Amino acid sequence: MYFFLAAYTVLGAGIKYIDDAFDKKSYSKHIAFIITPLLSILGAYTMMIDPVSATILLAVLGGVLLKGKIDNLAFATGFAIVLIIVIIAGINFLIIPLVMLTAAAVLDEVGNDYIDKKRDQLNPDKISHKFVTYFFLHRWIMKIAILFLVALGIIHIVFFLAMVLFDYAYVAMDSYSKIKQGIISTTLMGKAMYRVACIFK
Questions:
Q1: Is 1 helix (H, G, I), strand (E, B) or coil?
Q2: Contact of 35 with 73, CB cutoff 8 Å
Q3: Distances from the Cα of 33 to the Cαs of 21, 65, 171, in angstroms?
Q4: Are 157 and 165 in contact (CB under 8 A)?
Q5: N or C end of the chain, less CB within 10 A?
Q6: 152-159, Cβ contacts within 8 angstroms, sequence gap of 24 or more
Q7: pLDDT, tens digit, for every residue of 52-86?
Q8: Phi, psi dihedral angles at 138 (to 5 degrees)
Q9: Which letter, b or e, does each residue of 135-157 get, where b requires 16 or more Cβ atoms within 10 Å of its Cβ?
Q10: Higher pLDDT, residue 158 or 174
Q11: CA nearest 79: which of 43, 55, 25, 50?
Q12: Kind and range of the H or E element at 121?
């Protein structure tokens, strides 16, 4: 079971690394392309060895696919690799929980997009706004759905913990990207100011 905790953490951080390499240019696209097949193989393997893991990761894939989040070549390649592996190897999954968790994943993506668009209008000092931001930023709808299935005895608690680690690794990588972007922006601004100063010497 400890394998899933480690695997989901790596998947969460790796997916965000690839996302930010293309969207924010925070990381190397070459490295993103290198780690894409490795993450795809890891994801496919975790789906093959356990039906519950297959159900959760298929729901994550379904959510991002339905929301059009597979929007770069690395993600498309990774999705294709996972699809090919699971079709050839075959996987078992839970149908009703898959439908439920996919719907939750879509709602998480909708909520996350809403926060991104309305972030400037939300008051960080207001508790309700702070809660909504945290809730959707960390995609808690799917985790609550998983916790519900844990309460019903359908899913082991380790998968809830694994999903928490997945999302927090994802958010941690996002935070690091923002810090890195801030450093890059400050450096570029410093260079621009230096050049202007040189012109007026």
A1: coil
A2: no
A3: 10, 19, 21
A4: no
A5: C
A6: 154/94, 154/97, 155/52, 155/97, 156/1, 156/52, 158/1, 158/4, 158/5, 159/4, 159/52, 159/53, 159/56
A7: 999 999 999 999 889 888 888 888 999 999 999 98
A8: -95, 10
A9: bbbbbbbbbebbbbbbeeeebee
A10: 158
A11: 43
A12: none
Q: Which amino acid is at 147?
A: L
The residues, ordered by sequence, that sit 6+ positions from 65 with a Cβ below 8 Å of its Cβ are 79
Q: And the tokens for 136? A: 């959707």
Question: pTM value?
Answer: 0.83
Number of residues that this document lists for the chain: 201
How does pLDDT run across 28-39, given as a tens digit for each residue? 899 999 999 999
Annotate 38-53 with b (16+ C-beta within 10 A) or e (fewer): ebbebbbbbbbebbbb
CB 102 within 8 A of CB 63: yes
Gyration radius (Cα) of the chain, Å = 19
Residue 146 and residue 163 in contact, taking contact as beta carbons nearer than 8 Å = yes
Q: Which helix (H) or strand (E) holds 27?
A: none
- Give me the long-range contacts of 24-27 (CB less than 8 A, separation at least 24): 24/177, 24/181, 26/177, 26/180, 26/181, 27/177
